[in-house]
Design a protein that fits this description.
336 residues, alpha+beta, Rossmann fold, OB fold (Dihydrolipoamide Acetyltransferase, E2P), 6-stranded mixed beta sheet, 5-stranded antiparallel beta sheet, 9 helices, 34% strand, binds adenosine-5'-diphosphate, binds magnesium ion
Amino acid sequence: MPDLVLKNIKKKYPAFTLDVDLEVRQGEFLSIIGPSGSGKSTLLNIIAGLESPDSGKVLFADEDLTDVSVQKRGFSMVFQDYALFPSMNVEKNLSYAMKIRKMKRGEQKENVKALLDFVNLSGYEKRRIATLSGGEAQRVALARALSSQPRVLLLDEPLSALDASLRRHLRDEIRRIHDERGNLTTIYVTHDREEAFSISDRIAIIRNGRIEMIDTCENIYRQPKTLFTAYFTGDGTGLPAELFSLELDADTIFFRPEAVRVPADGLFYGDSDAYIILENTEVVSAEFLGRNYLLGLSWQGHRLLAESFSRPQSRTITVYIRKTQLLFFRDNELVT
Ligand code: ADP
Ligand code: MG
């Protein structure tokens, strides 16, 4: 059941145009990923009501919110820079919305305590914002966003200012918060594909103000609808289709590193008809990733990425690309 619907939304800036249709399901965790300047924040701000579209509609549960104010939408937003009130302590930041709604003092205190428990910051009521670490400040910002019982939670690159291990921990927390809140619809903007893959039900890829694809993580990775989506969502190699005798009318073949087999001992045991065989491939680099190696290869002047479970023993090797794992593109679109 679609919950939040963007119909024919257009927003024009001098050097940029956003043009999107989007349906987000009730209780869904949707991530929006795309390069810097692709329109992620503009899209989120339009959903929040912080910006108004030039045309189109924002609907929630069939209600037209296009001209409804930020406050009345019942959505909450979390920003990269926390946007907390620096002169107020944690408790005052969290009870701000409750005060405006004229909630009783005792009830406010209880709610603040519950919110802090919820984001693992019990006992932080009196702490000043300036004394919080980045991770703690972002938890307070999350708690504040939840304090108004939002119907939709909007997060704009909330973890970008934090270091890698904290980012990983907090993204799991965000997913837990989403799940425990039951019917909360969450839209999470990031430029980090791994982050998006780890927490999302679905992902939308945005480029130049347009959504190129919206689907499950698996479909986006395995069946990218555009070449841009293919490259943006993981490592991969595109080669001119004319190098191979194919029956399909494609201009580019694309494959992920894991589609390439690099026999450890140089001996290949598979059914060779099921593979494209590239002989005299030069090993240019071998990046140790712990579980395996990412090889940079050069074949007839073309660069390739391959996965390998051991470091190649020779400089020149033969590699095998599984035909069933090839994707074919024509004019940047997947050929099916
Ligand atoms: P992202 O969040 O994906 O990095 P934004 O949505 O912030 O991208 O911006 C998309 C494009 O719109 C950028 O080229 C940006 O410069 C432009 N833009 C955003 N806000 C404005 C504005 N208020 N006036 C003019 N151009 C803007
Ligand atoms: Mg942005």
